[in-house]
Structure formats: structure tokens, C-alpha cells
Specification:
Length: 351
């Protein structure tokens, strides 16, 4: 078919499986195992469905933008809101990575980065993690690059980079935008948001999908200097003026307001992660220390593929990639204590 010659062909991002059955233990997509804040539930029940006939406000003009600005002690004009952090990151790729020089990101990282680079025709280079899965800061310093992006903590490894090293990378690349994807920062480590006061080329991206327990709400945001945010909005409104829906914009406010609940569920997941690390180590697994809501584990005797398949037979889903360097690792999302106990019982049968 001749028309196919003019089709933009890419290899799409493949998310974790979304089984339709209800009686499964789903530890494969890094969702929060707890419900959203009770304040979110209350707001849902109080919603006026008739308002759905109206277009939503522009996100930066909403109470959610104001709430996030207050929470992070920045101006409202420093907040960009999108349909999950994937939307925010996609817009950031399209906006800021616009030179002939390659964008740098790790070889083992969030696997959407190379997809966006390919679809937007952005040149890129992957920088190999070291043997312990750490990002090597020297790979991002003194190079002729068109931008830098990586998660901190990294995914799927869970390894954290110290802010002093991140600052060196930002400072050394003052002529391009450096994006730090902090999807998992609430589970360990310290945010690099304070560095915004010193560097105008830094963009920090966050999500409600993990620690805010609202993956289904599709809310992500970025924090940066006002000029960066204005450029992002210019591109976004050139693609779609009404990206956010009314319920998400309203419910996001309540999720941010309920700081006590946020701290409670983060604390639960951190405690369960630490207990899970001890349990997995006793079963013969090795893994880098995780600062995310997951553990990236490999067994000393049984292959990851075999464990993955046998767990699935028992209706327990974890994540496995057939990729170089990580094909013998499983990424295991931290669930409730009861879910993790069921996982450990199954693993005792398998390994």
C-alpha cells in the first residue's frame, strides 16, 4: 500500500499488563495499593455532574495550580499541569529538546523516553548505568548534548542519585534544559525542587499516580521557572487547549490538601518495602537499595522469566522485560502487607 510510505512508524511504549479479573494481586504497574484520600472521596460525592457539559478551565488558572504552588512554595505561574506525568514529559520533550544535538538519558530507565525521542525525531544517546545500576554523573558533564532527562529515583531500578551530583549536571548544562522526573521521590530521598532558585534550566516533573494514589485521575505536573512554564503552555495549547478534565482538576486539590493521609500511606509503603527487602533477601534475591514504591530483584538460582510465569499462574502479576542487562530482573510493586505476604508464600513454592 503506497500510503504507508508516508506513515510515521514508531515502536510504542508497552505498559504493564492490566488484567480484567478482579481476584488478582497486581504488583506490575507501581500503582498505590491504598485508595485516595477520604477528602477525595467526599469531593467526588459532592460533585455536580451537570458541570460536565462545560469545558474545564485552563489548568494553570485552576485552584489545583494554586494549591500546588502553595504546597511547593512557588508562584502559580511556575506550575504546569498535564494528563499524568507522561503528558507533561511528552510536552517537555517536544518543547525543549529541539536542537541537532542528542538528548542524554540512561540506558536502563523509564522506557517511554526513547519512544518520545523517536516519535518527535529527537536525536538521543543512552548512557550506561554502572554495574550497580547507578547513573554516572561524568557521562552528563562536559558533553555536547541537547538536553538531559532521568528519573530520580531511577526506574525500574529504584536507585537514588544525590542532589549534589544532580546539581553538578544541571550546572554543567546551563545551555540546555535538564529534566528530573521525580515520580517516586516521595518514597525516599530529597527533592531537587530547591535547586529551582539557583538554576533556570531545571524542570522538575511530578505525578499523582504513585504517592497520591490517583493513577486513574491522570494528573501530572511540572515545576520550573516562569519562562520554561510559559514555553510549555505555548506548545500544549498548540496541540490541545483543554487537556485536563473537570473532575481531575477538582479532586487533585483535595489530594494535595490532605497532607496527613499522604504521609500516612507513604509511610506504610516505605515500611512494607523495607520488610519486603528483608523477605526477598532471605529467599535468595538480590537487588539494589530501592527508594521507590517497588523493588528490582533478581534470584540467584531461578530465572526471572520462570518466576514471572509461575507467579502469573498463581494470579500474581509483576513486571519483567526481555531487555539486555535487565532480563533476569523483576520489578515488584509494593502492595499491602497482605498482598506481599501472598507474594512471599508463592515465591517460597517457586524458588
Amino acid at each position: 500500500m503506497k500510503w504507508e510510505e508516508n506513515v510515521r512508524k514508531v515502536v510504542p511504549y508497552v505498559p504493564g499488563e492490566q488484567p480484567q479479573e478482579k481476584d488478582v494481586i497486581k504488583l506490575n504497574t507501581n500503582e498505590c495499593p491504598y485508595p485516595p484520600s477520604p477528602m477525595v472521596e467526599k469531593a467526588i460525592k459532592a460533585m455536580n455532574y451537570e458541570e460536565l457539559r462545560l469545558y474545564p478551565e485552563f489548568p494553570e488558572e485552576t485552584p489545583l495550580a494554586a494549591q500546588l504552588a502553595e504546597y511547593h512554595h512557588v508562584k502559580k505561574s511556575q506550575i504546569f499541569i498535564g494528563v499524568g506525568s507522561d503528558d507533561v514529559l511528552s510536552m517537555a520533550f517536544l518543547t525543549f529538546f529541539n536542537s541537532d544535538r542528542p538528548v542524554f538519558f540512561p540506558d536502563i530507565t523509564y522506557s517511554f523516553y526513547d519512544v518520545w525521542a523517536d516519535i518527535y525525531r529527537i536525536p538521543y544517546e543512552v548512557k550506561p548505568l554502572d554495574g550497580a545500576f547507578h547513573i554516572r554523573k561524568e557521562d552528563y558533564i562536559g558533553k555536547n548534548c541537547g538536553g538531559v532527562i532521568f528519573p530520580n529515583p531511577n526506574a525500574p531500578t529504584g536507585v537514588l542519585m544525590e542532589n549534589t551530583d544532580i546539581e553538578e549536571i544541571i550546572k554543567a548544562n546551563s545551555d540546555v534544559v535538564v529534566i528530573i522526573d521525580e515520580a517516586y521521590i516521595d518514597f525516599g530521598g530529597t527533592s531537587c525542587l530547591p535547586l529551582l532558585e539557583k538554576y533556570d534550566n531545571l524542570l522538575v516533573v511530578r505525578t499523582f499516580s504513585k504517592s497520591r494514589a490517583m493513577a486513574g485521575g491522570r494528573i501530572g505536573y511540572a515545576v520550573g521557572n516562569e519562562k520554561l512554564i510559559q514555553y510549555l503552555n505555548d506548545v500544549k495549547y498548540s496541540v490541545n487547549s483543554y487537556t485536563m478534565n473537570r473532575p481531575a482538576l477538582q479532586l487533585g486539590v483535595e489530594a494535595v490538601r490532605d497532607e496527613a493521609y499522604f504521609q500516612e500511606i507513604c509511610g506504610k509503603m516505605i515500611a512494607t518495602r523495607e520488610r519486603s527487602e528483608r523477605e526477598l533477601a532471605a529467599l535468595g534475591f538480590t537487588f539494589p537499595k530501592s527508594y521507590g514504591n517497588f523493588i528490582f530483584a533478581s534470584h540467584e538460582k531461578v530465572t526471572a522469566q520462570e518466576i514471572f510465569e509461575k507467579l502469573k499462574e498463581r494470579r500474581i502479576y509483576v513486571r519483567h522485560w526481555n531487555k539486555a542487562r535487565i532480563d533476569n530482573y523483576l520489578r515488584i510493586t509494593i502492595g499491602t502487607d497482605e498482598q506481599m505476604d501472598a507474594l512471599f508464600a508463592a515465591l517460597r513454592e517457586i524458588v
